[in-house]
Design a protein that fits this description.
Elements (H helix, E strand, L loop, with lengths): L2 E7 L9 H14 L4 E8 L8 E5 L10 H18 L5 E5 H15 L3 E5 L9 H5 L2 H15 L2 E4 L2 H10 L8 E3 L29 E7 L6 H8 L7 E7 L4 H18 L2 E4 L5 H10 L2 E4 L8 H8 L4 E4 L14 E4 L15 H16 L2 H18 L2 H15 L1
Parallel strand pairs: 1-2, 1-4, 2-3, 4-5, 5-6, 6-7, 8-9, 8-11, 9-10, 11-12, 12-13
Helix pairs in contact: 1-13, 2-3, 2-5, 3-5, 7-8, 7-11, 10-12
């Protein structure tokens, strides 16, 4: 029996800016390769060139989607349009709260199973109040309604599964299944070429610390900037960072980068989209990749860096300890956060920065050991996080619901 699947997503190439978008891109590719799946992607935004995309949607003209609350209302308008468009499928699979309400409505209207993949949770991202204002209450309602009503919830890590059940205790634990994110080990791999680094302003002959992520409280970039000022030696700091959540955090990061650059002259900030081959070169040639997130349900970016053969220093939060093995593939750094504070903010910011700097220095100080860590990371990424296995388990879940 062929299973007709509608995959609902905010992001799809070329409009991908986060781990959830990367996940959907590769999951769609692998599901399409499976003979028992008939897949159509439904995405936010303008038409896409991929033959996998069945339709794209933009917010209704009557809604000013540029504002915080308006952005969420615009999202709901897209969800309604998506739900109306997927008649005739066997399963609807949504990703993130942006598309989850579309899946929820489609499941009700068309009487088909709705699967939603939780890549993050709104209750654990309270800083989004800065970005969305009253829209945050609406996005939280959308997520709760969709997750509690879904026939199955995919959590991208054991840590994420625990968060789902803690934040939404009315969800039956039997409906929450862990299926990890994946990587393409042929695309993310060690490479010798570094010709794309100098045009980006990166000196490949000098060691550099690499960060890749959005400018948001969640990703902890400000903590890395604090830590870089404390490092021994003179490594470069390369920040592939854009898409700020708010004007306030954009200004905060810009001020901190400016101060570091004035003091050291060793900061390269790339705030525009960089082609993936250049990202792979950046990862493959970094002395250490750093993920200082205070909230990270999975942390796909760490798997990608490991697949490139690079040691990783990361916060021991969410799903990251399921990826990075302390002392083997890199270093984990504890975040002492108040359990009552859903933002995950370290109670002692200076202590966290010092611990982060110590772990980075530990890797930088011994290049031979760092290379061993990088190889161990590559082996772990290839063995545990391949997309074909992710797609196979996802298809099994679809069929179990029919």
């Amino acid at each position: 029996m062929t299973v007709r699947v509608a995959l609902l997503t905010r992001e799809f190439p070329p409009e991908v800016y986060g781990g959830a978008g990367v996940h959907v891109e590769y999951l769609a590719r692998e599901l399409d390769r499976r003979p028992g799946i008939d897949l159509a992607v439904h995405a936010f935004g303008l038409p896409r060139p991929s033959p996998l995309v069945g339709a794209t949607y933009e917010p209704w003209d009557a809604i000013d989607a540029r504002t915080g609350p308006g952005a969420v209302l615009g999202t709901l308008s897209v969800d309604v349009a998506m739900a109306a468009a997927v008649a005739g499928v066997d399963v609807v699979h949504s990703h993130t709260w942006y598309a989850a309400m579309g899946g929820h409505l489609a499941g009700i209207v068309h009487d088909v199973p709705h699967v939603t993949t939780a890549h993050s949770l709104e209750p654990l991202r309270p800083w989004k109040r800065e970005q969305l204002g009253g829209g945050y209450r609406l996005s939280s309602w959308c997520e709760r309604t969709a997750i509690e009503g879904a026939d199955a919830v995919i959590a991208v890590s054991q840590g994420m599964r625990a968060d789902v059940l803690r934040c939404y205790p009315d969800v039956d634990p039997a409906r929450v299944q862990v299926i990890h994110n994946g990587i393409d080990p042929d695309e993310y791999r060690p490479v010798d070429d570094h010709d794309q680094l100098p045009p980006l302003g990166v000196d490949p002959e000098r060691p550099y610390v690499l960060f890749v992520g959005r400018i948001t409280r969640q990703k902890g970039i400000t903590h890395l900037l604090d830590a870089f000022a404390l490092l021994d030696g003179e490594p470069q700091l390369v920040l592939l960072a854009g898409q700020p959540d708010t004007a306030e955090i954009a200004a905060e990061v810009a001020d901190a980068v400016g101060e570091l650059q004035a003091a050291t002259g060793r900061v390269v900030w790339l705030d525009e989209m960089v082609p993936r081959p250049a990202v792979v070169q950046l990862m493959a040639h970094a002395a250490v990749f750093v993920c200082p997130s205070v909230y990270e349900p999975f942390g796909l970016i760490n798997v990608e860096a490991m697949a490139c053969g690079t040691p990783v220093v990361a916060s021991a939060v969410g799903g990251i300890p399921e990826i990075v093995v302390d002392g083997v593939t890199g270093r984990l750094v504890s975040v002492d956060a108040d359990p009552a504070d859903p933002s995950g903010t370290p109670r002692d910011r200076a202590r966290f920065a010092a611990d982060l700097a110590s772990a980075i220095d530990d890797v930088l100080a011994d290049p031979t050991r760092a290379a061993t860590m990088g190889q161990a990371g590559r082996d772990r990424a290839v063995d545990l996080f391949g997309w074909s296995e992710v797609a196979a388990r996802t298809e099994d879940l679809y069929r179990a619901l029919l």
